[in-house]
Amino acid sequence: MLETALHSHLAGRGAVHCEERGVVLPRRFGADPAAEYAALREGAALVDLGFRTVVRATGADRVTFLHGMLSNDVASLGPGAGCPALLLTIQGRVTADLRVAALGDALLLDVDVRARAALVEALEKLIIADDVELREPGEPLALIGVEGPGAHAALTLAGVPVRAQRASELRGPGFVLHVPAAGAAAVWDALAAAGARPCGMEALESRRVEVGVPRIGVDMDGATLALEVPVEDAISATKGCYLGQEVVARGTARGHVNRRLVGLRLEGPEPPPGAPLVRDGKEAGRLTSVARAFGAGGLAALGFVRRECWEPGTELRVRHGHAVTLARVADLPLA
Would the pTM of this model clear 0.70, i.e. be above it? Predict the structure, then answer.
């Protein structure tokens, strides 16, 4: 089980931890996750992003190589700039989603720790005569998110040098801070003292599901086509060739896919992720993420549904054990 660089420090500051796919993360701080959710939407929320890690790409060909592999326009990034991107297979399926940050001498690839090995393995197989090396950062890093309209960042916090990238787990206002792991606790405390509210995964997942941000290994994986999930911000329509680009272009020109990830409002007992969605007695899809959605006022979910069932307002049933839950397709964001 992987513990984040901030695990012990946050346990001493009221974090209730939980295990999520092999990573121990703060579930909530105290007894009021609704207040943490409010900070995400209305103020500034502080998030332990220890489920993400950084791969450092160096070498003279790093930009041209990654521009030809990733789905977004890496070549246009100047030092200090960044963008979201996908690494796809040649069949247009999702290997990893990542955030790219450009430095003067390297590109930093911020990726879910559970997708790191797949990302590096896939890229290294494609390095032939290119001068590119994928390695760990020069020093251990902790990633801290500052989310919400009140989010702010600084180059130094509590005497610790910080690299800030304008990015968000929720496609909203926010920053991701790359912090030397040895100074992560001091940076966290400085941000909390400045007014950012510590926020756990319960509130973060609530908002993520409401907004419709897919998570690798949960809502998309190696069987998922890029066009089946809402990741438009990670795909350039103008950059030209990249791995899987022909499939994406062909699907875009055709104008449809056979299934799509949609938002769902649920009524009834809480179903587990993976439960089938049924219409007229026939399976029409499956759930991927389920959350208590504070803004949507009840249970909400993300799930794949077939083309004939994804119009907003379509009613489906979720079968789980002896229980049945109503699922109604809804426009994203849900709140």
Answer: yes
